[in-house]
Hints:
Layout: H1 2-17, E1 46-50, E2 60-65, E3 68-74, E4 84-89, E5 92-98, E6 108-113, E7 116-122, E8 132-136, E9 142-147, E10 157-160, E11 170-173
Amino acid sequence: MKRIGLCTLIFACFLCSCNKDESVENATQKDTGKLQTQALEREGLDVETLDINGDTEPDQWIYKRDGAVRYIQRDFNFDGIIDLTEFYEGSKRVRDEIDLDYDGIVDLIVTYKNEVPVRKEYSVDFEGNRHGVQYFDEKGNRTQIHRDTNGDGKLDTIEYFESGSESPVRVEAIKPKQSAE
């Protein structure tokens, strides 16, 4: 029985990884209600620090492996707390985690594909609670917004957009998943 369960799990993971457009992952699949920050793997990386304001304290940290940038962290208001972390793969920017109100909590996560934003997750209460996810096509045009309209921590509405449109062309409710018993 354990072998069947394990095989089913492996097969399900394989099917999920076959998604041709990974940037348009259904936000409700990982609906934790919080913005999910990514851990930094600093082991084995070289770090270069910069002191932008001349107070002898570093304000930017550039992490590299074999000369290639992996992460850049920036403290824009010089308070010692990271305000922006940029993630790189193969010299291309793939993700930003941004603290918009300088309180140490990430409020916006931007995911890039070929250096074009394809997904933006945001918190409007500045407490790291995810209130929505915007999706964009390969040209950077918004295609969908998934929103938590009632503030319960679950995305409940999808707005669909045509290329270049500021107003949604269709709005629908996200149906809750049925639990298998």
